[in-house]
């Protein structure tokens, strides 16, 4: 068991946080098969994450949070991904809505962060309608892929609200999970343990203080006075979200490397004279190629994190090309990490398809990550090329 032992107001260092997660990793790894079988994180895994301080990383220090930079998120996400992809992905998803909550008025944050180690899930995709009502809006709709919903206290939903002239205006609303319905529809080939079920709202009233225009959120413009000068909260949402998510893929590629290396010395190559796969020249080439692709993925991941952190420190505005390159770095890291895993998974032979061999789950998990709309390599890289060719971006999600 890992315990957070810092004094009140003391923020642990990056190395301390990574060490806590590393100490929790064996327990998380032991729960991976259960989580996949049951399509959700185990309570033991959630408790281990809380004890390691994972849910405090993006919360304000005035509530006992750590206000960590994105480089820390990459390191911790990678350490979690090395233990279990579903755990890492769920943690990274919690970090993003937690950051978004810090854009709401301070009294709203007081309510949300009154819960120790509060967990907030969410989505960036509109899934409902928000009808104006006295003092707020009434929301109806359904949202899919809500990672971590089963262990969350709040959800940030995106809905369409008619504007002053009747034009559609996307808004973000903060809703207690007790106001939403859980739809158990998470039956997937990858990231099965994330519990990314759908949620639904039926005539749910949301007070105006818990509603923000999505356009302002995408620009990192919030209503919080207490967080106005905090470095981590003055950046556009999409670069922040990209940097928050990217550690998982690095961790999955490292997990594949670990699993491959563990079996390597004693594994024969069937129908050949190789008594140890380690002796075969093809194994040398495959191992090196996988390692180099992971190196390249790490370059893109850390370039993205360092750019987000640098811009946050200085408060300099983001150019369109910088925003688009943030998404391109995310897509490139996802593609390269998957290619690294694919090489080692293919080299692991027929025996690797058994459920007790971790590399088969790693391969399915990283495939699922690459299919995510925000992470998808082709979508992100095409967007980057479009802007480099002098065209306007064809999305608001920058």
Describe the main β-sheet briefly: 7 strands, mixed
Assign the CATH architecture of the largest domain: Up-down Bundle
Shape: globular
- The low-confidence parts are 1-5
- Major β-sheet strand ordering: 5-6-2-1-3-4-7
Q: Give the proportion of residues in helices.
A: 40-55%
Describe the fold and architecture.
This protein is α+β, with helices and mostly antiparallel strands and 398 residues long. The chain folds into three domains: 99 residues, Butyryl-Coa Dehydrogenase, subunit A, domain 1; 94 residues, Butyryl-CoA Dehydrogenase, subunit A, domain 2; 154 residues, Butyryl-CoA Dehydrogenase, subunit A, domain 3. It has twelve helices and seven strands.
Short description:
With 398 residues, this protein is α+β, with helices and mostly antiparallel strands. The protein is built from twelve helices and seven strands.
């Amino acid at each position: 068991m890992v315990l957070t032992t810092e004094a009140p107001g003391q923020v642990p260092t990056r190395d301390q946080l990574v060490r806590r997660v590393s100490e929790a990793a064996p327990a998380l790894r032991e729960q991976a098969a259960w989580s996949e079988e049951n399509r959700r994180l185990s309570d033991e895994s959630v408790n281990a994450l809380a004890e390691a301080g994972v849910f405090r990383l993006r919360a304000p220090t005035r509530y006992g949070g750590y206000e960590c930079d994105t480089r820390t998120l990459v390191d911790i996400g990678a350490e979690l991904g090395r233990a279990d992809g579903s755990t890492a992905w769920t943690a990274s998803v919690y970090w993003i809505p937690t950051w978004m909550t810090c854009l709401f008025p301070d009294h709203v944050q007081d309510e949300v962060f009154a819960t120790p180690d509060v967990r907030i899930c969410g989505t960036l995709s509109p899934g409902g309608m928000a009808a104006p009502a006295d003092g707020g809006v009434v929301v109806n709709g359904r949202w899919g892929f809500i990672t971590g919903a089963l262990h969350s206290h709040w959800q940030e939903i995106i809905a369409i609200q008619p504007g002053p002239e009747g034009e559609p205006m996307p808004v973000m609303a903060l809703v207690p999970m007790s106001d939403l319905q859980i739809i158990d529809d998470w039956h997937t080939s990858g990231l099965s343990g994330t519990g990314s079920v759908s949620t639904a709202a039926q005539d749910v009233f949301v007070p105006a203080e818990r509603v923000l225009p999505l356009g302002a959120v995408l620009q990192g413009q919030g209503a919080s006075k207490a967080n106005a000068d905090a470095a981590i909260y003055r950046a556009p949402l999409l670069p922040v979200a990209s940097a928050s998510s990217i550690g998982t893929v690095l961790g999955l590629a490292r997990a594949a490397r670990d699993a491959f290396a563990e079996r390597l010395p004693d594994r024969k190559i069937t129908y050949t004279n190789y008594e140890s796969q380690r002796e075969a020249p093809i194994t040398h080439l495959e191992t090196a190629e996988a390692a180099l692709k992971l190196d390249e993925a790490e370059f893109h991941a850390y370039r993205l994190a360092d750019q987000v952190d640098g811009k946050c420190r200085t408060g300099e505005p983001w150019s369109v090309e910088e925003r688009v390159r943030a998404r391109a770095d995310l897509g490139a890291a996802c593609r390269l990490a998957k290619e690294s895993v694919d090489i080692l998974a293919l080299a692991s032979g027929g025996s690797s398809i058994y459920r007790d061999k971790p590399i088969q789950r790693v391969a399915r998990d990283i495939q699922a990550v690459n299919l995510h709309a925000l992470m998808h390599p082709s979508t992100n890289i095409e967007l980057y090329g479009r802007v480099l060719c002098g065209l306007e971006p064809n999305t608001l999600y920058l």
